[in-house]
Specification:
This protein is mainly β. It is elongated.
Amino acid sequence: MKFALDINNVNYIKIVYKDVSGTSHCSKAIVKQIGEKEIIACTKADIKPKIDTPQEVNLSFACDDGLYKATTILKYISNLYDDDSYVYFRLKTPEEIEYHQDREYFRVRAGIKVIIYYNQPDTEQTQSLECYAYDISANGIRVWFMEPTDISQNVKLEILFDGRKIYTNAHCVRTDFENKISMLSFKFNGIKEQDVDYISQFCIKKQLEIKRSQLL
């Protein structure tokens, strides 16, 4: 569809780009201007990213009615002042955009260790179960066990990424049991925004790794 987003309808934008070493990054930014030829987005950064420009980048526009995605050219980045900690991305306005509904929360396979904390029904004693994630997205996680497990209540999760732990409340939205494997799907409840961003970037990097492996 033709690009026709208005700045008042965009909550934020995510820009996936590559630094000078070729490593992919994802920056969450506020849109300051949408014009016929240029989009200006701003994000806080203590260190100005080292980016070769111009380069092709992927954009995700988070709007009230869902997610829109596009590919465009990052023309250059700049600071308002030399000591300014805000970075401005100047992007060519895409000619086309694709509506993805809520697909910002796409799932990727991940063998991350997870600890589930829950209360037994008849007591107030907290129990814990260790397991591993089958897949994860920015709004939920699915874990698996080698025996039937039924946790139909609100829980607390400790998700152990390499070098980072994320704690969040969650509730079980689905239980499946197939081929001697029990699957529990949880939806995050009250997760911190910075943790949502971290998981989103984790999922994007995993997705890029999968695409690279398919091309080899």
